[in-house]
Amino acid sequence: MSNNFQAGAASVDTTPPLGTIINGDFVTHYAQKIHDPLHAKALVLKNDTRTLVLVVVDICILGKELLDGTKAIIEKQFGIPSEQVLISATHTHASGAVEDVHMVPADLAYRKRLPGLIVEAVGKAIDKLRPAQLAFGTADAPEYVMCRRYWMKDSYTPLNPVTGKADTIKTNPFGVEEEIIKPLNTPDPELGFLAVKGLDDKWIAILGNYSLHYVGDWENGTISADYFGRFAAALKEKLDAGPDFVGIMSNGTSGDINIWDFSGQKEFPKGELAKSTKIANDLADKVLEGLEGVQWDQAPYLHSSFANIKAGRRMPDKDELETARGILAIGGLEDLKPDTQGWRKLYAREQMLLNEFADAAESAVQVLHIGEGKIGALPGEFFAETGLKLKAEVKCPYFTISLANDNVGYVPPAHEIEKGGYETWRCRISNLLPDAEDLFRKKLLELIHDDKNS
């Protein structure tokens, strides 16, 4: 039965000017060159009942305050309730900074400008609404996801810069590859996608989802959409889609996953963005293969569920704050070096700044029900384990978009916090209590299963 389903997509250039502060490292870098443009990409789905909006932005992270304000503008201008809008970050580490991370402040001029560009993308997508059909699909892509957390030999001691004591595991063991025993965890190898085209068979958009942190084959000071942007370009070329087609790649549950091969067994092309381009091309090919045999839906059910969550924080105690004060009193933040003392100073600063936070983070989870499939949204960097558990519990086509609607930072499973490693080091972007992953995952599953049309 027809429900007047329509879809529209648009992409707006969000490339910051040279000199803009760049997120993604422990210390500040500034934009020195633009390798490829950044975008805010919007996909709007509408039927007789409601309108859903999905936006993916080429940015490292997006916080709740910025996104809530952006959604309020979208609701005011277009009448679409905030609960029906999902906005996420790709997590490229070569974009303008709109949130403070470690020693990198937000670029206030860029932060002020970005919300308007996101709203512009949504407006343009609405203007392009036309009768459409959609389909979910998947492909297997294990080649480009590797766990970055490693068991190490007894001859190596991983340092925790927060406590000054030893961790059980090491994240990204650069320079000590010979000390590696094996990776800890299993990546999510699935490449999921939502394909949308007009009833005339002309392409509107493809929203991909893959649990790869980012690639990072560019020099500091570079502006780039990383492999996320290369994927979009590859899709457009391979599909021979028209100029209005919008290719999108969202970030899945990749908090402990990247493509930095410490075993030395994988070979990739050298050169700036060469690795990103190869990965993007291969993933685009897999999407094309996955499109064969998908079931197109011309009258999809559309629904959004949204739930607020309050998650407690791991706060520093009095003794830890006193230790941090002593470390900071030595000085040296101005010319921080990436060594043991440098990490101790950086994380001492983080303890003092975290101490000013509320004892709990207030965030949310969201589920979009689109036809026969569902898309979950988690507000931070979640591990592959979380995404795999969710997929095991959801019987319909499903994928999770992380870094969505907020950024509460890393949310490792409790047993991973016990092991230590970079993702668990207490700071402003990793501070929730060990039960947080369970809390977010179970609330998301509750929304998925509570949908009366499931």
Defining traits:
454 residues, alpha+beta, four-stranded mixed sheet, eight-stranded mixed sheet, 9 helices
How large is the share of residues in beta strands?
A: 25-35%
N/C terminus separation: 18 Å
Tally the beta strands.
23
- Estimated helix fraction: 25-40%
Overall average residue pLDDT:
97
Number of helices: 9
Number of domains: 2
Biggest sheet features? 8 strands, mixed
In the sheet with the most strands, the strands line up as 7-6-5-1-8-13-14-16
Uncertain runs with pLDDT below 50, 5 residues or more? Answer: none
Measured on Cα atoms, how large is the radius of gyration?
Answer: 21 Å
| General shape | globular
The assigned structural class equals: alpha+beta
Organism: Cyclobacterium amurskyense
Protein name: Alkaline ceramidase domain protein
